[in-house]
Amino acid sequence: MKHLLNLLAAVALLVWGTQLVRTGVLRVFGANLRRLLARSMGNRFTAALSGIGVTALVQSSTATSLMTSSFVGQGLITLPAALAVMRGADVGTALMSVLFSVDLSWLSPLLIFVGVVMFISRQATTAGRVGRVFIGLGLMLLALQLVVQATEPMLASPAIRALLVSVSSDLAMEIMLGAVLAVVAYSSLAIVLLIAAMAASGVVALDVALGLVLGANLGSGILAVLTTAKSPVDVRQVTVGSLVFKLGGVALVAPFIGLWLRFAQPYLGDAAQGVVLFHLAFNIVVGVGFIAFTDSVARLVQRLMPHVKPQQGTARIHHLDPSALSTPSLAISCAAREALHQADVVETMLVGMLDVIRRNDLQVAERLRKMDDEVDALYSAIKYYLTKISREALGEEESRRWTDIISFTINMEQIGDIVERVLIDIEDKKIKKARSFSEAGMAEIVELHARLIDNLRLSMSVFLNGNVRDAQKLLEEKARFRDLERAYATTHLGRLSDNTVRSIETSSLHIDLISELKRINSHICSIAYPILESAGALAPSRLREPAPGEFPR
User: Fold this and answer.
1) How far is CA 436 from CA 58, 75, 367, 429, 496, in A?
2) Separation between Cα atoms, residue 241 and residue 83, nearest integer Å
3) Contact 151, 197 (CB under 8 A)
4) Contacts for 457 with CB less than 8 Å, ≥ 6 apart
5) Tens digits of per-residue pLDDT, 496-519?
6) Max Cα separation, the chain?
7) Cβ atoms within 10 Å, residue 144
8) Is 0.85 topped by the overall pTM?
9) C-beta of residue 378 within 8 angstroms of C-beta of residue 409
10) Nearest-5° Cα angle at 488, 484 to 493
11) Is the CA virtual torsion 301, 303, 304, 305 positive or negative?
């Protein structure tokens, strides 16, 4: 029992080390890796090469799969290009298994020592996150040594030998067992390294080890499918397409395991090298041999998983991909895109509000008021999604972006509430009482409304791009809007003094309406403050320093 616990602890340490490396690399280089993937989609071969490079850094084809799937879900790349990336990602994982199979035991204590020093001394900085990666690499190398040490005493157990003999009699069982191990460990790389270590110490026969390796490759595809099970169809198409390639690869290579043992293994030295090189050869065969079929597989998957149109009247939460939460920079991007969708709904409400004022259409007013429920639902979904992102995993820029998204969605939600109140007032005080604004009053409302729409669109651009000049322009528009609101309130009072009948009948509604438009504009323009503050373009206070004795105490 003691030896079994030692083996389980070593396996757990290997999986944990892989997790540390993956999360650490994504925290430091996540945004750059996403840009690298996005820019390499010109053809399937450059896409595959980028998949190799990114996966070699992240040490997880599953993580690369999640990033690539999110790009497809956002409409940034096509499904065939994403499938080409995944062919390269599998090769990248195999290359890392070959690297770790080399005896690097001397490097383990050095990596752990340097990593701990960097992580403790500069935990919140990039250096601290790189230290986390070093710790993970050191733990992986240490775990591989512990696996070898823990498996040697277990060979003497008759029960273990009987179990291994029963497994070796069935290739399908070996593949199934390897797939289950990869899914449970959340890492095919860790399982392949474990299989190599066990084969080197004689715990499993080499032919059994190769069957387990095929299963581990299949398990990584199943794991990606399970991880994206609740994601949009576009995202799931990538992982299902990748699984189709893996199934085809296993079916193609499995019959030739005996040929590998007969003709290739004698030239490869020890069993561990044979396992990892078989893993590499399998992924090269699938990657290079099947890359020409990416278009065909993409069409097959799209037929099997067609798009389903969302039901009318429900909030379309499309970009909040749960599988992206393991990659903080990617999750932030998903939340930002959903926030822009929320702003699109708010813009539709604002545009429709003027139509209601002009045409007195109660049906349109009711439809627009119901859209506020969609705005509220999107706000709740975005807020909940952001709370599931680990703040510790965010860099300084990403943390600031996290705050900006929360602020943006709050403002959009409050604008939706204001528009709903305005529509109710219009129904009660204008439409149902068959009243109308004066021509001058209507012209003022139209002008303020046009400025409001322009400012909303400018604020969406500021939120998306973070342009400081546009943010300054937005605050300038806030001052102009305030001055116009005051001027129009004064001219309205002038019309009242002239005893204009329509102005008198709609006086309360007119004053309330332009005041609410100003309040909406304030929410819109407040989006500029975080951008200007981070750029150092805001003064500490708007209050002027008084001259001595200017203001009485």
Assistant:
1) 64, 46, 22, 10, 15
2) 7
3) yes
4) 347
5) 666 565 556 667 777 888 888 999
6) 106
7) 27
8) no
9) yes
10) 155
11) positive
Q: How far apart are CA 173 and CA 165, in angstroms?
A: 12
Q: Encode pLDDT of 310-357 as tens digits.
A: 444 445 566 787 767 767 777 888 888 899 999 999 999 999 998 888
Residue 416 C-alpha from the chain's centroid: 26
Query: For residue 267, what is the DSSP state?
Result: G
Single out the residue of 504, 527, 512 nearest to residue 448, CA to CA.
Answer: 512
Of 492, 487, 490, which is closest to residue 439 (Cα–Cα)? 492
Number of neighbouring beta carbons within 10 Å of residue 325: 18
Contacts 24+ apart (CB under 8 A), 176-181: 176/215, 177/212, 177/215, 178/211, 178/212, 178/213, 178/214, 178/215, 178/216, 178/217, 178/218, 178/219, 179/215, 179/216, 179/218, 179/219, 179/222, 180/215, 180/219, 181/212, 181/215, 181/216, 181/219
Cβ atoms of residues 407 and 530 within 8 Å: yes
Instruction: Give residue-wise pLDDT tens across range 517-531.
Output: 999 999 998 888 888
* Per-residue pLDDT reduced to its tens digit, 239-280: 899 899 999 999 999 998 988 888 888 888 788 888 989 999
Cβ–Cβ under 8 Å, residues 322 and 230: yes
Q: Using CA atoms, how far apart are residues 226 and 239, in angstroms rounded to an integer? A: 9
Check residue 94 and give its pLDDT.
85
**Model confidence over 449-488: pLDDT tens digits?**
899 999 999 999 989 888 888 888 888 888 888 888 888 8
Instruction: Please count the other Cβ atoms lying within 10 Å of the Cβ belonging to residue 424.
Output: 12
Residue with tokens 């990039």: 126
Q: Which of 101, 353, 73 is nearest to 237 (CA)?
A: 73
SS (H, E, C) 358-370: HHCCHHHHHHHHH
